[in-house]
Recover the amino acids of this structure.
């Protein structure tokens, strides 16, 4: 079957600085919120970095990026999504001057990508705010954090304007309501935060996102700036109208963020929610003007779907930050994430129907406990047919969406090389095409080995999707 993927489709993979780089205290880098989260999203933070935090060394991408970029190039990547660690550039977040060694590292990284014909897709803030901003200002609770983010963004836009043409502002920006410390450096315990405080922090991030979108367009006129949301496909558990209404309300929790980025204003239902629940958010006239700086495309993560129900006795499932009810028609991963390729097509369709902007799938993949084996020729590999099946089936649904007329810019599968998990801070939950020799105890020589999926994805890219099994 002839491929429906456009010739300029951006095939690639994605990581985050805090999950791959390591070198947490080298070359002037300050501490980030991730450096005190040794157990991931669901764990408790510590006062100082502890040796059991695998992210402190991660997979040592900071020192081995040339080797890894060469492997991505061997697969044929057109794009590589990564993030800039804010605390590498401004160690305390509010510093007057940037850290030159941090800037130089990303110069070298982006140069290496471009040398291999790979376009960087850069996230400005991917769950790695400077910890000092939390301690001094309580993170995004303080409006002054907007100006610190603007300074950071302006610095990197000017520095990399000839190297980076694709930018994302905040990773999964809707997640701040679920994980305020990790996503916003808010040190106040979540249980003590009021809705007014949470939505105030959210508002500050949204204003900052729109402000730096304007900045990017001014500094790099040919750049494209996107928002990035945690994509949660939600179905009614039953045809009951109560379940359908519950699903509608749950959808709004996700799409209100895309709405503000794409349309430049708060949706009426969110303003009404503030009013009905006495939620005080200081939305100034200046803020309203800034929010009108809309994005060029919408990007999102997609791993699974959930169901919603008014019947609270139904069985629960969920991913990192999204709990829902079990869909009896779907299978689940070892971590309880339900596998739903068709849900990706549904999400693409819904987003485009709502906002009519190009879409970019910047996270999708299967986390599994891979086993390194020795092949017939003595080479070490992983026979990850389960991952190939997952990715194949999702990409087939992406192709169907494209054939429906939906403009999909590209696809960067998550954790294209094994990295430390965001949800559990473990190594055993692996997503990559490349196995990294490191275990949950931090042991291993960090050697890289190509999995079976490495060659599968290489073929997918070479054929622009024609090799997919439909």
């Amino acid at each position: 079957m002839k491929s429906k993927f456009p010739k300029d489709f951006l095939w690639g993979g994605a990581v985050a600085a805090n999950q791959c780089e390591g070198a947490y205290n080298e070359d002037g880098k300050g501490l980030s919120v991730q450096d005190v989260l040794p157990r991931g999203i669901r764990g408790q933070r510590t006062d100082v970095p502890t040796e059991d935090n695998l992210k402190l060394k991660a997979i040592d991408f900071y020192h081995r990026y040339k080797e890894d970029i060469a492997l991505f190039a061997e697969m044929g990547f057109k794009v590589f999504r990564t993030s800039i660690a804010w605390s590498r550039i401004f160690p305390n977040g509010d510093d007057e001057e940037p850290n030159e060694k941090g800037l130089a590292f990303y110069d070298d990284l982006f140069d290496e990508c471009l040398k291999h014909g790979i376009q960087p897709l850069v996230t400005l803030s991917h769950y790695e705010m400077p910890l000092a901003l939390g301690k001094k200002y309580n993170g995004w609770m303080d409006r002054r954090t907007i100006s610190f983010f603007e300074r950071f963004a302006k610095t990197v836009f000017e520095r990399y304007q000839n190297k980076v043409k694709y930018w994302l502002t905040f990773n999964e920006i809707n997640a701040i309501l679920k994980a305020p410390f990790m996503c916003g450096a808010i040190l106040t315990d979540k249980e003590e935060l009021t809705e007014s405080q949470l939505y105030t922090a959210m508002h500050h991030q949204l204003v900052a996102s729109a402000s730096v979108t304007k900045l990017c367009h001014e500094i790099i006129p040919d750049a494209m700036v996107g928002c990035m949301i945690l994509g949660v496909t939600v179905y009614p558990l039953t045809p009951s109208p109560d379940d359908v209404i519950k699903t509608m309300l749950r959808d709004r929790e996700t799409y209100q963020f895309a709405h503000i980025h794409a349309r430049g204003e708060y949706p009426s239902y969110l303003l009404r929610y503030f009013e009905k629940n006495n939620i005080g958010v200081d939305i100034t006239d200046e803020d309203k003007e800034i929010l009108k700086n809309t994005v060029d495309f919408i990007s999102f993560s997609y791993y699974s779907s959930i169901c919603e129900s008014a019947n609270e006795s139904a069985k629960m499932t969920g991913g990192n930050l999204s709990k829902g009810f079990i869909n009896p028609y779907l299978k689940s991963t070892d971590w309880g994430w339900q596998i739903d390729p068709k849900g990706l097509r549904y999400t693409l369709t819904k987003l485009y129907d709502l906002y009519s902007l190009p879409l970019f799938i910047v996270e999708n993949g299967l986390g599994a406990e891979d086993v390194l084996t020795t092949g017939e020729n003595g080479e070490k590999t992983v026979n990850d047919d389960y991952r190939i099946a997952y990715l194949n089936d999702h990409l087939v649904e992406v192709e169907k969406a494209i054939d429906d007329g939906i403009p999909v810019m590209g696809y960067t599968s998550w954790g294209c090389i094994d990295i430390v998990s965001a949800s559990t801070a473990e190594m055993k939950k692996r997503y990559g095409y490349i196995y990294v020799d490191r275990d949950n105890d931090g042991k291993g020589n960090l050697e890289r080995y190509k999995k079976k999926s490495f060659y599968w994805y290489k073929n997918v890219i070479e054929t622009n999707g024609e090799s997919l099994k439909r």
